[in-house]
Design goal:
Belongs to the major royal jelly protein family. Keywords: Secreted, Signal. This protein has three helices and 27 strands. With 420 residues, it is mainly β.
Length: 420
């Protein structure tokens, strides 16, 4: 029997060698510029610098921010049901406490809903050192915002005091407004503007004048903010649908990730592989018609992945969290940062990169990147949280929750600062 087994192994080894493949796979596949891909089952190419875990959560997070003291803030949205805490601050690698307070986490009966959390999706750090948060105002089980509950809040990280609230006017709630993410530019106008994505099926981009509170909702029901009608994503090699028990449908989430860079708003539609950009001023000018706003939207082409989150650095580089590819992509928007000739345009130079010259590249790719959802840049590091979104019940047959925690937040060195 032993002699027969040895003979079989010898034949397998011979056949493997004869066809140019290794006869065995090393525990850690060798890596070189000339390495053949796909020679071992575990041959998953890792790209970029190493990832450093900085926090882990029991629940699946969606929102992430850091303040200037490197405190980590996590948002646990209530899109799938109640959560004890909506926003927390990390107190150690694996522990958290409600932020800014336990009382702020849930609105009580009769309370002014502008002074408590209903469903915060994401916090972001402003250039003034304060945290700005977007609350969709959609309570667990509801399909539209509570009047006064959809809002942007500013909270001081040092005093934990609520500084100001900008409620989204109820007339903008039409067609299931679903605020998802935000970025703020405090240098625009007299007190700055907040820009928000609406992930409803009809999508839209909103701007809020932080001086006056005036809010505008733009591009609703246009292709540039809507999902692909029959979009099927991919996650860890599996096709992803939306499920209601055994009833299959297609994901219908529109504009989602957002970043501000080079004077533009960048956004992607979650149920698509498309991303777009347009001048920030196109969304802040109430005198412009919808057609005039749409005419300023630029389409640089698909980016091979659905995109949950965006962020940007101080050199105009936009980062795209590429959940289908276990990766984080980037694209340079400033010509001075371009290092290759593209379409006859030499590297370097001045001005903005033309849309037709955008090239999406990979910052990191790793099996650790399990649906990176939100990202933030502080002190040369890019931080991002992961949540295995596609393994959550709404995307799994019979609505089985296949996520496996803990859910980790990582950082990767980029040597750049945050966008203004």
């Amino acid at each position: 029997m032993l002699r027969s087994l040895v003979c079989v192994l010898a034949v397998v080894t011979y056949l493997a060698d004869a066809h140019g493949f290794f006869s065995y796979c090393p525990r850690t596949p060798a890596r070189s510029p000339n390495a053949t891909l796909g020679v071992c089952p575990n041959d998953f190419t890792i790209i970029g610098p190493p990832l450093e875990p900085v926090h882990q959560s029991v629940q699946a997070p969606t929102g992430l921010a850091l303040d200037n003291d490197l405190n980590i803030y996590i948002a646990y949205p209530r899109n799938s049901g109640p959560t004890p805490n909506n926003v927390v601050i990390a107190t150690s690698f694996a522990s958290e406490e409600p932020w800014p307070s336990a009382e702020f986490q849930n609105c009580t009966t009769g309370q002014n809903v502008s002074t408590c959390f209903i469903n915060v999706q994401n916090p972001v750090l402003g250039s003034d050192g304060n945290l700005y948060l977007v609350d969709s105002g959609i309570a667990p089980g509801a399909t539209s915002p509570t009047p006064g509950g959809a809002k942007v809040l500013a909270i001081s990280p040092t005093t934990r005091q609520l500084l100001r609230v900008w409620p989204i006017p109820s007339p903008l709630f039409y067609d299931g407004l679903n605020l998802n993410d935000l970025r703020v530019n405090l240098t625009l106008g007299s007190a700055g503007f907040a820009f928000l994505t609406d992930a409803s099926k009809g999508g839209s981009i909103l701007s809020v004048d932080l001086a006056t509170g005036q809010a505008l909702r733009r591009l609703h029901n246009t292709t540039v903010v809507m999902p692909d009608p029959t979009f099927v994503g991919s996650y860890n090699g599996q096709a992803i649908y939306s499920w209601n028990g055994t009833r299959r449908s297609f994901t219908s989430l529109g504009s989602d990730g957002i970043a501000l860079a080079s004077g533009n708003v960048y956004w992607g539609n979650l149920a698509s592989r498309r991303f777009y950009y347009a001048p920030q001023t196109a969304f802040t000018d109430p005198a412009l018609s919808e057609a005039e706003v749409l005419s300023q939207v630029q389409d640089p082409g698909e980016c091979t992945t659905e995109q949950a989150g965006f962020t940007a650095d101080d050199k105009g580089r936009v980062y795209i969290l590429a959940s289908e590819q276990n990766a984080i992509y980037y694209v340079d928007t400033q010509q001075s940062e371009v290092t290759d000739e593209i379409n006859g345009t030499p590297p370097g130079g001045e001005g903005l990169v033309k849309a037709e010259n955008y090239v999406v590249r990979t910052l990191v790719r790793s099996g650790l990147v399990q649906h990176a959802d939100s990202a933030a840049i502080v002190d040369g590091w890019l931080y991002f949280c992961t949540n295995q979104l596609e393994l959550s019940p709404r995307f799994q047959y019979k609505n089985v929750d296949r996520r496996r925690g803990p859910f980790r937040t990582y950082r990767v060195w980029i040597g750049r600062g945050p966008a203004v």
